[in-house]
Amino acid sequence: MTDETIQRAHDAEEHQKSYNAIMGAATAVGVPFALALTMFFTGLVTRQGVLMAILLAVVVYIFSYIIVKLFFSHH
Questions:
Q1: 36 Cβ partners below 8 Å, 6+ apart?
Q2: 25 — phi, psi (to 5°)?
C-alpha cells in the first residue's frame, strides 16, 4: 500500500469518529432540547402561563432524554 492510500484510510477513520461523536451529541442533547423548546412555546401560545410553559419544557426534556438514552443509544 502506498502512503497516500494509508493516509486516506486513516482520514476515513477519523471522519467516522467525528461523525459518530457529532451525531451522538445531537441525538442525546439536540432532540430533547428541540422537543422541550416546542412544548415551551406551545405552553405560551395556549396561554398556560410562563411558569407552566417552563415546567412543561423541563418535564418534556427529561422524559425525552431518558427515552433517547434507553432506546436510541448504541452503547
A1: 57, 58, 60, 61, 64
A2: -70, -40
**What's the structural domain count of the chain?**
1
Full-model pTM: 0.74
Which range marks the domain in which residue 59 is found? 3-71
What's the gap between Cα 18 and its chain centre? 15
Per-residue pLDDT 10s for the chain (75 aa) are 678 888 888 888 898 999 888 888 888 889 999 999 999 999 999 999 999 999 999 999 999 999 988 887 765
